[in-house]
Amino acid sequence: MLRGFLMFAIMFALLALVGFMQSWPLAFAILNLCLISAIMSLGVNIQWGYAGLLNVGVMGFVALGGLAGIVITMPPVTEAISAGGGGVLLALLVAAVTIGIVVLLYHRLSGKLRGIAITLILLAGAFAARAVFDPAVEAIEAVDSARTGFLGGLGLPAVVAWPVGGLFAAAAAWIIGKVSLGLRSDYLAIATLGISEIVIAMLKNEDWLTRGVKNVNGLPRPVPYEVDLQSAPWLIDLSERWGIPVVEMSSVAVKLCYAGLFTVVLLIVLSLSERALKSPWGRMMRAIRDNETAAEAMGKDVKARHLQVFVLGSAVLGIAGAMLTTLDGQFTPASYQPLRFTFLIWVMVIVGGSGNNWGAVLGGFVIWFFWVEAEPIGLWLMDVLTSGLAEDSALREHLLKSAAHMRLMTMGLILLLVLRFAPRGLIPERS
Amino acid sequence: MTFLLGQSMTGGYGGADILHDCTIGVERGEIAVVVGPNGAGKSTAMKAIFGMLSLREGTVTMDGEDITALAPQERVRKGMGFVPQTGNVFPSMSVEENLEMGAFIRDDDIRETMEQVYTLFPILREKRRQAAGELSGGQRQQVAVGRALMTRPGVLMLDEPTAGVSPIVMDELFDRIIEIARTGIAILMVEQNAKQALNIADKGYVLVQGRNRYTDTGATLLADPEVRRAFLGG
Amino acid sequence: MMDILNTLALLGNYLIVPGITYGCQLALGALGITLIYGILRFSNFAHGETMAFGTMTVILLTWAMQSVGISLGPLPTALLALPFGIAATVLLLLITDRYVYKFYRQQRSTPVIYLIASIGVMFLYNGLIRFVIGPDDRQFNDGTRFIMKAREFKEMTGLREGLAIKSSQGITLIVTILLVIALFWFLNRTRAGKSMRAYSDNEDLALLSGIDPDRVVMIAWILTAALATIAGTLYGLDKSFKPFTYLQILLPIFAAAIVGGLGSPVGAIAGGFVIAFSEVAVTFAYRKVFGYMGYEVDGLMQLLSTDYKFAVSFAILVIVLLVKPTGLFSGKSY
Ligand SMILES: Nc1ncnc2c1ncn2[C@@H]1O[C@H](COP(=O)(O)OP(=O)(O)OP(=O)(O)O)[C@@H](O)[C@H]1O
Ligand SMILES: [Mg+2]
Predict the structure, then answer these.
(1) pLDDT for C91-109, tens place per residue?
(2) Nearest CB partner across the interface for A185, out of C112, C134, C311
(3) C207 and B82: CB-CB below 8 Å?
(4) Range of A188's domain?
(5) What is the signed CA dihedral for B196, B202, B208, B213, rounded to 10 degrees?
(6) C-beta atoms of C191 and B147 within 8 A
(7) Which of A72-86, C192-206, C231-245 has the lowest mean pLDDT?
């Protein structure tokens, strides 16, 4: 208990140090992403720590949450909707009907006939859907493509997008879980890896929905804008009194607002997770994790429980993903990289302490902090190490340029070292 | 002096002791049979003798030499062959490859031994190109025994070689085992089919909860009304 | 008649030749996954990066050779650098095993722990590669570009459709065939190879038979290093070397290994071709084919845009998981 408390204290001290040594806006920017990382880390901890499920597609669920950021908060593009909204809807309907028929056939028919019938129906459905879909998409993307070219969203407040992001991710998780749970644990890992790649491909290419690589900018915010604050008398007043430039002051103020909102979400997720972990449900989950065979023998429906916990964990990831888009104020599909959004979260959980929610949160903070700070530290280190070399030495230049990649190595090393020498993490699970 | 002897063995899998002061031995050319209810610790005793679990107390000696501290692989080199109760063949490998793997530690010519195994179990010669996993239960047991014989062991340990095998095949397997014993190999065998096994046994051990309950010649045990009532189903 | 021949040439050019090439590359990659799975019993997520590392060393050596004027004439210099690249990769994998996986072997850890360790290794390799060679695109194919150019084919046959075969494609096929023959000879004919199969089949019994687990594991890593380096280099010769793509190729490779049956070498090869051909066939635009058959259609007649080629691997993976989780050649599913 004391140990955890102390480590959080050190963590905040480090953040303050960044504030003093680098800048306060940076310190708060790091803090905000620490908070989001902590939520993601909680999501993975629910899956891995509680149940031993390996989700290697964290990125996909986070990105689906991010999608909710667009679909919920952006104002609708009425022109695009009238141009192709109906077509897209119809195409989705065709797809849904096709899948319905396939499921029906799967249960009614058997043998070779089934395979052939299903293939034919799928092909027909695919072509029919595309026949409606393609022109509709073309029409949508033609609408002022430099600025919109997509359907837009519902124009609701950003905070609504967060739970919806959770729902999106949960839906995807349910499908993946249905298919790959109950098989050996690696299969879930690979299936989730697959779905995350597909989600990203979709977000990059379905311009009618996400504008693809053109990105969606200017997502509505749940907090005031810096420019507005800069003309607010109370802020000018404060900045004069503390001797901090107005621009910096406004930036810190905005980040503080975000931090407040994120902290509330984090605390809600954390307290729910803690309650769940301590409930009979949580105890059962851990019993299953520790001895699946015995639990099964005792009549527990392991697969159903796993599905439950997998969906819940993914929902948390989706929430965090939506929050991230809101914080960024934009949606850039190309920014979703597996190393950053899947594997880094894993490092957070393992380092923090799998199975312990507080550990996961701490892991989120610590790892994000070092992920950001590894670059300046690495650069500084390289600078010192190569200071013996001539200013224009090619080796030195290469080393300095490559210092950015040091953090990948650092993360790998941290993961391996913790896994081996402190497999229970910074704040170990209470048994 | 007994050829292979597990003396006063006490130990288990790390938790509570499974074996308590259990003694089992066999002479060259003899068949010793261990019987007892499920969970009595028969397989555990075999594993203990073969070095697959470390004993807390007791010793294992072979031909007068203390081998208690040796790893299973080293015991194989010393001339022990073991056919475990489960997973005793390489299922995706052919019968012949199974035999080859049995002889893995040998550097000399193994063809003669393989020939002997094929003579002992003619069906294996017929099926020698077939994957062991595709054989019937009885054939698979023959592969398992054959594999263990490939090192030309001085002692052959069998854990329920007739599990899941029809009575006819069982009789045949027992005949083969007697044949093997005739060549001077010591046979230590755990059996579920206690009556038939004790019939061919020179020595019998009845194990209950990890302890020796009765130890005598096979014939005496078969004749003992108490043993018959409690362990041989009347 | 002409139309049929044209259709065939068209399909050959856009479906069959690329399908075979890609299939070879996936098969070699999947073999590496399946070998490690069979022996060490975990899904090696660092395999894509292993391929990238091997390719990187090959590229560096190629550059070194080029700078001193060594070349193979019409063949890419990379082929000459390959053995050295393999040696470097072997070294890397053995060091990794010694300092990472060996510990978990002694602990008899569950496969999941290995998997997570392999994620850490992936990070390490990834950083190492970017640190040494950077994240950019690299071309290192310096041999002749084509065995047959589309134009030559047209002139030769008088068809409207061309059929081009790049030398990298020819090399891929030949190297793969040779490598697979060598691998199967090793696994089925040599004592060491058989002991590996035995270990993969039944670890406990292999130990009882006196098979040395450390040796088996070492051979597995050596083979994996060779397969990964060759697969990665062939892929790089065919397309180009970009560290990021080797992370992405992980999915089709895993899909291939699972579709074939994890732990089954034959399965890995079959799976590689199943995935490759499905991917190519599903993302091919069939408009011209319809044209030659006498149906003028508008639209590309493409089932799925190439941006979604991962979805194909994934869909096949899902079907296999639903219908036959042990894969085509009955690997280990539990
Ligand atoms: N690997 C193991 N780890 C822990 N305990 C074990 C292990 N194997 C067996 N046991 C326990 O040891 C006891 C004896 O088991 P053993 O397999 O020796 O019985 P057995 O007499 O061979 O039974 P059977 O006739 O069913 O084969 C049992 O209570 C069993 O639960
Ligand atoms: Mg037993």
Answers:
(1) 999 999 999 999 999 988 9
(2) C112
(3) no
(4) 2-76+152-421
(5) 130
(6) no
(7) A72-86
